Write the structure tokens for this entry.
Amino acid sequence: MIKAILIFNNHGKPRLSKFYEHYNEDTEQQIIRETFHLVSKRDENVCNFLEGGMLIGGSDYKLIYRHYATLYFVFCVDSSESELGILDLIQVFVETLDKCFENVCELDLIFHVDKVHNILAEMVMGGMVLETNMNEIIMQVDAQNKMEKSETFIFQSTRQDR
Amino acid sequence: MPAVSKGDGMRGLAVFISDIRNCKSKEAEVKRINKELANIRSKFKGDKALDGYSKKKYVCKLLFIFLLGHDIDFGHMEAVNLLSSNKYTEKQIGYLFISVLVNSNSDLISLINNGIKNDLASRNPTFMNLALHCIANVGSREMAEAFASQIPSILVAGDTMDSVKQSAALCLLRLNRTSPDLVPMGEWTARVVHLLNDQHLGVVTAATSLITTLAQKSPEDFRTSISLAVARLSRIVTSASIDLQDYTYYFVAAPWLSVKLLRLLQCYPPPEDAALRSRLTECLETILNKAQEPPKSKKVQHSNAKNAVLFEAIALIIHHDSEPTLLVRACNQLGQFLQHRETNLRYLALESMCTLASSEFSHEAVKTHIDTVINALKTERDVSVRQRAVDLLYAMCDRSNSKQIVAEMLSYLENADYSIREEIVLKVAILAEKYAVDYTWYVDTILNLIRIAGDHVSEEVWYRVIQIVINQDDVQGYAAKTVFEALQAPACHENLLKVGGYILGEFGNLIAGDPRSSPLVQFNLLHSKFHLCSVPTRALLLSAYIKFINLFPEVKPTIQDVLRSDSQLRNADVELQQRAIEYLRLSCIASTDILATVLEEMPPFPERESSILAKLKKKKGPGKVPDMDEARWNVNGNTEHSENTEPTNKAPSHPFTDLLNMNSSPAAGASLLVDVLSDLSSPAPAPTTGPGPTDVCEEHFSRFVCKNNGVIFENQLLQIGLKSEYRQNLGRIYVFYGNKTSSQFLSFSSSVTSSDTLKTQLNVHTMPVDPTVEGGAQLQQILNIECLSDFSDTPVLNVQFRYGGTLQNIAVKLPVMLNKFFQPTEMTSEDFFQRWKQLGVPQQEVQTIFKAQHPMDTDVTNAKILGFGVALLTGVDPNPANFVGAGVIHTKNTQVGCLLRLEPNPQAEMYRLTLRTSRESVSQRLCDLLSEQF
């Protein structure tokens, strides 16, 4: 089971956090900081797996992460998940984001946090892998976007936005 | 076409985010956020109804603020309201807010449940998916209660859309995890198994996850899934990649589903059906074969996906542990990965090999890779990989390679990461003990451990080495020599000093023959480090010193000087001070024989599980340490030794730590020492100052002639009080024993003894008492007394008990006198003188003249005469200054009338007492008793 999915940048600023087990806000922030601390001090080209920090459950959990340019994608999983499988899932996630945002960058995650959540929801649900097929995921996201457009398009041009 | 165009974002949101990003300081950021929160709150509270777009915008802002780590304490209600919207956008943002921000025990759950209920019933697959996601993400008990029974039917209904089926399967899985009792098992389970045949691979993947979890809990119900899973796996593995279209990932067919199916099969033993079994073996062989094929793509994703399946297949082979050829192939495959350029593969190969090493078929095959693994330990840049290498070395260690592995681990320890040092220390200690052929190697290894990583050597490790040295007498001399040499180092770790102090204290004599390690040299060596160490270590060293006094009488003066110094005797630490005082005293007063008995060598420790292994298990959690039955070897290697040991001298069965723990009560083996010391340290007990055990105390006896209640005996330990009542020839005495100390009296008993003559005259019956009197408590005993005939002897109350290990004997004259059986008799003057004349026989009258011992006070005298038991007759004697009394002594056999007359002479401070009774003995006795009262 996936316990948490965290995205933060090279400075440890969180860009997405999704916990599939309940923690209070403070603990969530501490877990993000602890995880950043553990992951960021590692060299490039070392392995992508490490034992989880104390807050997330110690050696019973693994952190599986990838580092893309300015962002770290970290999945915290228990022993029932395949390490390489999760590593590939991160890749699928990033490739999907890349397709949805056209050359995704950190700013896209900042300004479209809702979209990122929706894309993630098509892949992981309640800590379990829901869908791994990128085309299927994108199809769902597209369908959502269409519905969204049909609902909001009419108002958009005249709006006074504050 | 990009799915999200960058232009359609919400401008207000973008502005807010940009503002935040431009904030120069944390304060500015907090200020901007608070401003925004106030804005949103007022918008939510405002009269104007917000349109969906605005609500979405504000909720997105709140999400962003939350992500930055700020508490969001409002907006929940607005989010819940969005659930009931008909618009997808609004519903979606409502659900998003809830799944990120609402925790499982929110009081809004019932409102949220209402929204979910409507969406589940909507038959709109998008809405149903949103609802199912929400249930799975929140996963609270209330939600399980509301929906657990509904979801299985959605899952297996024929008309449910694939995407909804996927969500329903995972939703059910989640609820089964959080509230398993609420998920009803039923006819749907059989239909869930058949989802493994579903056309849609996404549905199959989700169903496999669900079935795996359910099968772990009730394997029998899902046994049919084995054949379906094997069939499905076989189709995937043997398919050309194009068959599975979208589920092919970088030229690997459905890698996630393959992994999940292999996981599911790991819930069961190898299939019993031969055909099925061979089909599975075929699949596994195919997967192993594919690993050897040239890659279809240079991309890392391709090899990752392929290897994900491969590692899972190997895990299944190891789990089945039944096909030697497959196991050896798996081992060879992992061996290749050990040298792969991909760090991830090396990591996973080391991890998988750990489990493989425990299989009897492949243990030898794993061992062939020892050099590669040792090399990994030395050269890997990544600490996670090195840690896996340590684990594997530990798992592959056996008698043939233990020396090499322990040596390598020791040398790695010198530079190891601090985070894993303690674990390595434990592992080295366990391996060294488990595979020790000769204990000199073991002792060397542990001392090396302490030298290299003393801070990471836990108590258990050095306790254990002492345990073993004490139980193995062939290693004791070597151990003494080795610790002595190790202590020569200018700076040595405190743990080494503990081991050294203990071992030299026990076995220093074994090396004392060498002038280089003479007793004085040994002592000076230990004492040179004394002042640098902590209190517990110093306490241990003091014990070593007193042991030295026993072993080497020649250093006794030196050690006594040390003990006598102010820094010991007046040490601020009470434990050290007490040890110094007691040891010094012991060394001064005890004879060599006593010293030798008190300070004899520790008896061997009873056999028990290695405390280190227990510690490693605790550290790693149960089930993570390979079963090591051999580790529970008999530490009583020398059986002869243990047979010779007296049962009372055997070390107690409580954990080893107690023996070394200075705060705990001393163990049985050392109890002799304690007894000796407790006599020295406790306040002098009764026998030394109080009456000797054979002396009968009659100090307060005479006070009781004229009164019935009071304290008859008292010393530092005990007070005995009495309350008595008499009627005719019967009496009852309540005896109260008060424990004046704070500790228990044990084996308490009391009895009344009488002379042989007295036994025929007086019956005293004692009630039994509790054998224990708590500190500060009072014990009551009842004595029943019957007077048979007149008597003049006194019964004796004997009390015995144990206090602080010493037997106390107390004997007290019990104030039971003849006058206690008086019944007063009133009579007129005439009657009195008539009787007086009747008792005129010379033997019947006893008269005595004596000097007053107390002031001659009429009232006091009156009271005393009344207390004596007779009636005080006034107006009888012509001289009013005289006292006259009359009474009858009741015995069982007879009654004896008694008249008395007391004539004071204040000028001379003299009294004349005259008694007339019908019996000479009675008259005499009463006169004796009464004449002492004035």
The longest helix of chain B spans residues 300-320. Chain B touches chain A through 82 residues (CB under 8 Å). Chain B has a mean pLDDT of 82.
